[in-house]
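Translate sequence into structure tokens.
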Amino acid sequence: MTVSICTTTARRGFVEHQARMIAQQQGYNMEWVLIDFAYEERAEMVGKLAEGLSLKIIHAPNVRDDQRLFRDIARNRNKALMLATGDYIIFLDDYAVIPQNFVVRHMDILAQGSLSAGNMYRLDTIMPDLDALAATPFPTLLSTYQNLIGLDGRFLRGGVQVARPYRAAGISYTGNLGIPRFIFEYLNGFDPRMDSGLEDSDFGIRAYAAHFGCFFNPHACTLNLYTGHIPYTFNYDHVHDVEPFISNSVNKYVGNTKLAENEFLTVEFKDHYRVARCKRCGATGMIDPTELMDYKRQAVDNQARVPSGLPGGLDTLRTGV
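Result follows.
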């Protein structure tokens, strides 16, 4: 039985530390699928890591074609799925610290054929020395930085910390998310239309609609490092950010179909959602993905599965269409 940990990078640093943490996981045959925006400059280093740690690392560049998207999250996650060989898939953020029992704790839920949405602590301060941090036992990190760690909102119910997994829809965040492969196959991966975000919550809602178990797992923990001073890196010469656009008072956004363009972006209307297009380079991104998510939930034909043939979809990546 193989477990594939999948990471898509959008920032620099921490690849070497994560490789060591994954190599230390207990009890299962492991592989790391690393979809890397900095593939060319890190290829030699990753190859040496794989050899030195005796860890199978599938290292590949992010999706690159003539379709420009703001963030391209879903298509890169689908590429990781396409390359992974494991029976179970665990998505992990590129700046996450994990304990040695990370995979074991996820498997408590995954072995039951359900999604395991792991608990994410967040270090709300500038990162300490990475070498020292990676060498520190996970419980020590939590106790050392207890006043600087933010609790995952899913970890509290009625103001009380949860002690055991509970079932819910839309709680699936790919910063720490385990999924049996057969569920990905059934649902046809992530929806590539969700290129700007919420592709993970959308997946959880569709899994729930298809009657798969979806559990918040408080025992499978990560510590996500503070990255406020390490921004996402794009392949363009400027940064795209949809959020200031839709919240900009000049646009008078009120949740309806009227959304004026501004000096940077214009709006295109699709069947069930809206897309912003950069006037400078033509890159696009979904403005309000909840529109499409709501449509899927209300559709008579229960659109749990991603439609076949979408560019960047799991099926099209596999067939090369």
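Note: The chain is about 30% helix and 25% strand.
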